[in-house]
Write a structure and sequence with these properties.
The chain has helices spanning 45-52, 74-78, 96-106, 111-124, 140-151, 170-185, 197-203, 221-228, 243-253, 274-287, 302-310, 319-340; strands at residues 5-16, 19-30, 34-38, 60-65, 68-69, 81-84, 158-162, 189-194, 206-211, 214-219, 232-237, 259-260, 266-270, 292-298. It is an alpha/beta fold. α5 packs parallel to α6 (170-185), α8 (221-228) crosses α11 (302-310) and α9 (243-253) runs antiparallel to α10. The structure holds adenosine-5'-triphosphate and magnesium ion. Adenosine-5'-triphosphate binds at residues 16, 19, 21, 39, 41-47, 86.
Amino acid sequence: MTDGYAVRAEALEKRYGEKRALDGFDLAVREGTVHGLLGPNGAGKTTAVRILSTLIRLDGGRATVAGLDVARQSREVRARIGLTGQYAAVDEVLTGRQNLEMFGRLFHLGGRRAKVRAVELLEQFDLTDAADKGVGKYSGGMRRRLDLAASMILAPAVLFLDEPTTGLDPRSRGEVWDSVRALVADGTTVLLTTQYLEEADKLASHITVIDQGRAIADDTPDGLKNLVGGDRIEVVVAERTDIPRAAKVIARVSDGEPETEEGELRVHAPVIDRVSALTEVARTLQDEGVQVEDIGLRRPSLDDVFLRLTGHRTEKHDKNDTNEKYEKHDKNEKHDKGARA
Ligand SMILES: Nc1ncnc2c1ncn2[C@@H]1O[C@H](COP(=O)(O)OP(=O)(O)OP(=O)(O)O)[C@@H](O)[C@H]1O
Ligand SMILES: [Mg+2]
């Protein structure tokens, strides 16, 4: 009945006055997978999740969740889904356990079953030790895990996670990822919106990129990276004034214009003959006396994909976040490379 798809959306439309929040949006999410929905601010991610989780009505098109029509069978759909919103829904004053019991009763579990389910979920989301602490005292990661637990009260077939780790530190983010992986291993299908490309890369087997209410790409993370092209050579110079010289050297071996981001000392460009490009650039820069901090080859990242497809960097790159995230990202890329070689 589901054709192997937990979620299908065809030509979804949603208007707010003049604004077309969704403008012919298509989506197909395979059962038992994590599917990433990526897009810049205002792209329509939350709108799509709200329609699919029956919180708002669609204006056009058609969608099914777990094989059920979201418009005509919204009650049945609701019984099969969980939703964690962009903003946490748990009550600060109550303890973790009390929150889960309360959600259990909201879902008509009855007092005893609600209690039992709360214990199971506290265990599953590694919150047993904190079960009887007020949620006000929880860390950000613990709160998100509690939020996830609350959305899993009925062990839904499909779970919608709208930016589940925004604002979390890397460690808490990792803990939430582990929980999501565990859910999928148990058979839940997850539709995940995120602004963190690393998150989509790590968790999702398939990604849909949405911009201005439409899906503009749909592929595996690797497939998306291949869209952008092959490997890139990347040089980090020690002095800002050396950027033009480095770009010139790179241009001789590259298969496209060298690029550099404002405020960065990094110059990069696509290359075809990777190893000879690398050795030639390294040698020439040394001959020319350009001081190099780092040089290497890397696969395009999802950031590159995102930039190419939407013309934006990811937006939660506010000043405080950007550097740390990029450094981490770059390290991971290099690490991956090493592991593959
Ligand atoms: N209730 C509403 N009333 C009017 N306009 C809305 C409403 N909800 C969303 N919009 C508009 O629809 C568009 C899509 O919004 P949506 O919240 O789905 O984007 P998003 O991709 O989730 O963005 P973000 O990354 O900021 O969460 C935006 O232009 C937004 O301003
Ligand atoms: Mg949103």
